[in-house]
Amino acid sequence: MLRGDLNRILYDLTVDGADGVEYLFGDSIASATETADGIEVEFDGGERRVFDLVVGADGLHSNTRALVFGPEERFIRDLGYYVSIYSVPNHLDLDRWELTYVSPLRTALTYSTAKDTGAKAMFLFASGPLEYDRHDVSQQKKLLAEAYAGEAWEVPRLLAALDEAPDFYFDSLSQAHLDHWSKGRTTLVGDSAYCASPASGQGTSLALVGAYVLAGELAAAGGDHLAGFAGYEREMRSFAEENQKLGPSNIKHMVMRTKRQISIQLTMLSLLGRLPGKQRMMAKVMEPIQKAANSITLKDY
């Protein structure tokens, strides 16, 4: 399921009706000041409003976290890789297929999903910290093109679609680690609190489970937000940590460092389909992901 489709489902479920959520697009929080009765929030647009609680669900580079908890360099751990994803024409006529190209320190892949006439390109590469403006998309596109200059296969064609991509994404593979996810009347959920990195494959699951647990614990606390926040951390902490372990281990298999490592892995993959007991072998490979994904028992609140 593409992220945009999931966003649309959640928006449609919450925007209508007497209890519908109020959405303010194109704005952000400029300041948040806690008072005896709530939090006074000033928006970038200049409006001031008072809320009972503030929940930061604004990603790895959370503005809410920076305002309330401190600068992000205190909480972000770089895994030493970068990722880029964007839409491309489906010139390979892929139908729910993924094709992957690997070279030392570089992986590129293109895939399609059901009911999608186009395709996506994804790039993963190892690198030390890169200096760039997170709001300068043209600079990020240039960094990506430079990282894959001279690579073969369909890489040049995928890169040629960069300028037309309406949904370009580029960032480091990083994780968020905080001792506490709540402070006063503010708490964090999803990537802003416990980003496991895209390499974990668990970001959306962590966010949705975290939102469910946070809402449930707040309801169970009967209006005591401090008790609700404490219950949320108690229920979620080990689950988040188990899923965060997947990121550093998974990326080593996704981006390989030497030609020898690539050759060995591709040989093993080619043999796998012809070996007896291949289902058991694949189950063993998937076991850490299954274990982490199911390492929480959800309450019926």
Could you list the spans in which at least 5 consecutive residues all have pLDDT below 50? Answer: none
> Helical proportion?
25-40%
Order of helices and strands: HEEEEHEEEEHHEEEHHHHHH
Query: What Rg is obtained from the alpha carbons, in whole angstroms?
Result: 21 Å
Number of helices: 10
Give the biggest beta sheet. Answer: 5 strands, antiparallel
The structure class reads: alpha+beta
The shape is: globular
Strand content: 15-25%
Q: Give the tally of β-strands.
A: 11
Spatial order of strands in the largest sheet: 6-7-8-5-9
Report the mean per-residue pLDDT as an integer.
94
Cα-to-Cα separation, first versus last residue: 27 Å
Summarize the structure in words:
- By secondary structure, the protein is an alpha+beta fold.
- 39% of the residues lie in helices and 21% in strands.
- The protein has helices at 3-15, 63-68, 137-147, 155-160, 191-194, 203-220, 225-244, 246-254, 259-272, 278-293, and strands at residues 29-34, 39-43, 48-51, 54-56, 76-88, 98-103, 106-111, 119-126, 169-176, 182-183, 186-188.
- The strands form 3 sheets. It has a 5-stranded antiparallel β-sheet with strand order 6-7-8-5-9, with helices on both faces.
Summarize the structure.
It contains ten helices and eleven strands. The chain is α+β, with helices and mostly antiparallel strands. The strands form three sheets. A five-stranded antiparallel beta sheet has the order 6-7-8-5-9, with helices on both faces. A three-stranded antiparallel beta sheet has the order 1-2-3. The chain has a three-stranded mixed beta sheet with strand order 4-11-10.
